[in-house]
Amino acid sequence: MDLNIPVKVTSGKNQITAGNLPDSLKVSVRGKGWDLLGVMFNKDIRYDLNLLNLRRDTRIYTMQGINERLNLPQSVTITSITPDSININFDNSLAKTVPVINNVEVNLKSFYQIVGSPEIIPDSVVISGPTSVISKIKAVSTEYKKFDNISENLSVTVKLIDTLGNNLNIDPSFVTINYTVELAADKEFNDIDVEIINVPQDREVLLVPPKMNISVRSGVEQLSKLNPIDIRAEIDFNDIENDTLGYVTPKIVLPPKFNVINQTPEKFQYIIKRK
């Protein structure tokens, strides 16, 4: 009969192990029927892995002292253990701050949209653990959750995932993600001046035409607060000097939570004059 025996690791505060230690052992046993049933339903059986007295890297053979560790009846014989050994490798401790990756899926009701980017609080966390592990981690992800048919603001608290099997500490271990959800709408702003930036003092640039129309998409409430003076259309003189086609495309600068969906014209001809 095969048993899945959990492993309980006991270590000191300053003991850091590199690599993953097993969560459980596969133990094959044989014996009398009633004794095997007693072992099978005994939830207190576990393999205690005590590292407190270890000061350097070592290998522990799991079969060694197994009867005392598991406290099995004498009539039950262990025939094999997988893995047959556990490598204990100690490492230095390292802590660093990494960004949080949002793994929450939000599906909206028709005609609604998420306004701007979701707000993650906090957007970065401190991770600590073995140097050999922590040095390779660039970010941590939230657990996966899915929300459907959303038509109003949403706030979600989610757990951060340790994909390395309890080999690192994450502080804090939960984050809150806020979504601003509004009915989607478009609005056109006409006759927006196009600004030429970085023009030398001895030069003057005339655009053909000098103004443009810009269509913007966002939530209804957000659009009601947007004014033409909040929209900038600009062309860098350096782009004009490097142009080989005879026209340039302006850069549209909007406040957060707004997107350009159309701009007319898209390209501008120009005339450079010396003052």
Give a nutshell description of this structure.
By secondary structure, the chain is mainly β.
Structure description:
The protein has 275 residues and is mainly beta. It has three domains: 87 residues, Beta Complex (RNA Polymerase Alpha Subunit, Chain A, domain 2), CATH 2.170.120.30; 87 residues, Beta Complex (RNA Polymerase Alpha Subunit, Chain A, domain 2); 90 residues, RNA Polymerase Alpha Subunit, Chain A, domain 2. Helices cover 10% and strands 49% of the residues. It is built from five helices and 23 strands. Strands 9, 17, 19, 20, 21 and 22 form a six-stranded mixed sheet that branches. It has a four-stranded mixed sheet with strand order 3-1-2-5. It is elongated and about 100 Å long. The relative contact order is 0.12. The model has no long low-confidence stretch (mean pLDDT 90).
Strands, helices and their partners?
Layout: E1 2-10, E2 24-30, H1 33-40, E3 47-50, E4 58-61, H2 66-70, E5 77-82, E6 85-88, E7 93-101, E8 104-108, E9 112-114, E10 119-121, E11 124-130, H3 131-134, E12 140-141, E13 145-150, E14 154-159, E15 169-171, E16 174-179, E17 181-197, E18 203-208, E19 211-219, H4 220-224, E20 232-236, H5 237-241, E21 251-253, E22 259-264, E23 269-274
Parallel strand pairs: 1-3, 7-12, 8-13, 17-20
Antiparallel strand pairs: 1-2, 2-5, 4-6, 7-11, 9-17, 10-16, 11-15, 14-16, 17-19, 18-23, 19-22, 20-21
